[in-house]
Amino acid sequence: MPNRQPLTQRDLATLAQVAARAHRPDELYAAADALVQRTIGHKLFTILRADEARDEVERAYSSNARAYPVGGRKKKQDTHWGRVVLAEGQVFIAHTPDEVKHAFADYELIFSLGVGSIMNVPIGFAGRRLGTMNVSHDANWFTSEDAECGRVIAALLAPELLART
């Protein structure tokens, strides 16, 4: 895929350093956003925080706050992606517009952003689902290597979400 750079130990060390120092949550999320853009690529990048008490997810970060503002909430619905990502802790990829349409009720907004595929990566710790890291791009963009890369990056976001629950 064009313009992708491999995820390196230096990349992870830099993100870990941001996480370890005193920071605002959006600073860490923006660093993860930049790293995902460089290594996987995206048209939209969001982070959702799970609110188990309310059975909701809340948007903690968005690369496009106009379309998907921070603070937006939605009920965790009994959807295929929800079962895969939130219940089972697995990466979910909708590779095509048809798969996106089937998985996401807001597909018209998604398509208006030029998105044709979505990868949702669980953020978890010790068996708890803390949230998701969501990466959107052109149709058929994501690979199994992207899912592996996403899992590693998402793991470095877990302490941030855990600290805010």
Fold topology:
Blueprint: H1 9-20, H2 25-39, E1 44-51, E2 56-62, E3 73-75, H3 80-87, E4 92-94, H4 97-103, H5 107-112, E5 117-125, E6 128-137, H6 144-155, H7 158-163
Antiparallel strand pairs: 1-2, 1-6, 2-3, 4-5, 5-6
Helix pairs in contact: 1-2, 2-6
How would you summarize this macromolecular structure in one to three sentences?
It is built from seven helices and six strands; from the N terminus they run ααβββαβααββαα. With 165 residues, it is α+β, with helices and mostly antiparallel strands.
Task: Throw out a few tags for this protein.
Beta-Lactamase; 40% helix; 6 strands; alpha+beta; 165 residues
User: Would you identify the regions where 5 or more consecutive residues have pLDDT less than 50?
Assistant: none
Which range best describes the helical content: under 10%, 10-25%, 25-40%, 40-55%, 55-70% or over 70%? 40-55%
Major sheet strand order: 3-2-1-6-5-4
Beta-strand proportion: 15-25%
Content-based structural category: alpha+beta
Terminal Cα span: 37 Å
Rg is 15 Å
Mean pLDDT: 94
Order of helices and strands: HHEEEHEHHEEHH
What would you say this structure looks like, in words?
The chain is of the alpha+beta class. It has one domain (9-163): GAF domain (Beta-Lactamase). The protein is built from 7 helices and 6 strands; from the N terminus they run ααβββαβααββαα. Strands 3-2-1-6-5-4 form a 6-stranded antiparallel sheet, sandwiched between helices. A hairpin with a 4-residue loop joins strand 1 (44-51) and strand 2 (56-62). Helix 1 runs antiparallel to helix 2 (25-39) and helix 2 (25-39) packs antiparallel against helix 6. The longest helix is centred in the N-terminal third of the chain and has 15 residues, at 25-39. It is globular, with a radius of gyration of 15 Å. The mean pLDDT is 94.
